[in-house]
Design brief:
Layout lengths: L8 E2 L19 E3 L14 E3 L3 H5 L12 H7 L12 E7 L5 H11 L12 E5 L11 H17 L4 E7 L4 H12 L4 E6 L1 E4 L3 H4 L9 E5 L8 E2 L7 E10 L6 E5 L6 E2 L20 E2 L2 E4 L6 E9 L2 E7 L2 H15 L9 H4 L4 E2 L29 E2 L6
Parallel strand pairs: 4-6, 4-7, 5-6, 7-9, 9-11, 11-15
Antiparallel strand pairs: 1-8, 2-3, 8-10, 11-12, 13-14, 16-17, 18-19
Length: 390
């Protein structure tokens, strides 16, 4: 079967886009980050909340910005962030250049009392897709995506090093080259990809994502039911999305499936071996595998000073662009990637918070779009409860 035309999109969305199986439910006060481009290239679909901009501008340095910060995320997912992750690197792959990435990262980490992560102290490194410093052209929309991604690594694994690899364009060839460059860099244990497009074949693109010994995560999408690549690749951990709220229960938090979280069955790629016992209903690759917070209404705080459409500073983001770097960073905390693959969560599902309510649309088989006990499409096996599933 021929591979479908693929247009990759970064998934830093603050509301689900219009999908084939659901109406648009986008947050009313949002702004798009990027314009549409031709098929085969990435059109970033970042939406940033504009209803909290005034509050955010007044936040630093005397008040906490809107959106969940590191302490909340670490609490929600029961993570050993204060003590784990040292000596490991989480890589972020995105298109185009964010010229203020390191400076913005410093603001985020200072705001939340995290240790400095700089080029000078060896914690932060930024390279182009060939490993050099000839950075691609600036793009404000992708800069928002980059800031979101590196802030989430900081929130979840503040002791991890961060490698930012900037692809020279948003074509899958260039994004893939950047993934390969990240995988070839010493110390990298996880690579996060907050972009995606229509379902496609590993026979065409899989060499970019097949890196044994490194956890490669990919956002499942923000348009509800419907498979997305590279999340539908046999080689990655596909990351879905939830709505995360505080609660008066023993955990202190509650989660439901986010209506925008991508899910579905690949038409091309083989299923994960360990997924067979979870009744996914897919004859081939099912997504998602696991999940984390993604609903913009329960979004995260991000700092980005590369102004785009008049927006900069403290912002609030959601989408599975949040969830992918969160999960990559949990792999970084666990430190097991040299000896496991993406089947591991399926054999350790008891170390996940099972998400059993919520939906991302209508679909031919209930579990592909409706949360339930055990595996389901929007949230996979669930969200981290510590690092035991990673």
């Amino acid at each position: 079967m021929a591979t479908a035309a693929l247009a990759a999109i970064p998934l830093a969305l603050l509301g689900p886009a219009v999908g084939s199986s659901q109406a648009a439910v986008v947050h009313q006060a949002t702004a798009h980050s990027c314009a549409t481009v031709k098929p085969g290239f990435a059109a970033c679909k970042a939406l940033v909340r504009t209803d909290v901009v005034a509050v955010q501008k007044a936040a630093s340095p005397n008040a906490t910005p809107s959106g969940y910060g590191p302490a909340s995320l670490q609490s929600a997912y029961n993570l050993p962030s204060a003590t784990a992750g040292a000596g490991r690197t989480v890589a972020i792959v995105d298109a185009y250049d964010d010229p203020t990435a390191e400076a913005d990262l410093a603001v985020y980490r200072s705001q939340f009392g995290l240790p400095a992560c700089t080029t000078a102290n060896g914690c932060f490194k930024k390279i182009d897709q060939t490993g050099g410093t000839t950075y691609p052209k600036k793009d404000g929309g992708w800069a928002q995506e980059i800031s979101l991604d590196i802030d989430m690594v900081s929130a979840i694994c503040p002791n991890c090093h961060i490698l930012l690899v900037e692809a020279k364009s948003s074509s899958f060839a260039n994004l893939g080259a950047a993934v390969n460059r990240a995988a070839a860099t010493a110390g990298v244990v996880a690579i996060s990809n907050s972009y995606g497009g229509s379902d496609a074949a590993d026979s065409t693109y899989g060499s970019y994502y097949n890196h044994p010994g490194i956890a490669v995560t990919a956002s499942s999408g923000d348009s509800g039911y419907g498979a997305s690549y590279p999340a539908s690749s046999h080689y990655v951990t596909a990351v879905g999305g939830t709505t995360l709220n505080t609660a008066s229960n023993s955990r202190g938090w509650t989660e439901t499936a986010w209506s925008g979280a991508g899910s579905g069955c690949s038409s091309y790629n083989t299923a994960l071996t360990s997924a067979a016992s979870f009744s996914t209903g897919c004859s081939k690759r099912a997504e998602a595998d696991v999940s984390a917070v993604a609903n913009p209404s329960t979004g995260v705080a991000v700092y980005d000073s590369t102004a785009y459409q008049g927006l900069s500073g403290w912002l609030v983001f959601g989408g599975t662009s949040v969830a992918s770097p969160v999960i990559a960073s949990v792999y970084g905390l666990a430190g097991n990637t040299a000896s496991i693959d993406n089947n591991y969560p399926y054999t350790h599902s008891s170390s996940l918070w099972d998400v059993t309510s919520g939906s991302n649309g209508s679909c031919p088989t209930s579990q592909w779009c409706n949360a339930r006990v055990g595996w389901d499409g929007p949230t996979g096996l669930g969200t981290p409860n510590g690092i035991g599933a990673f």
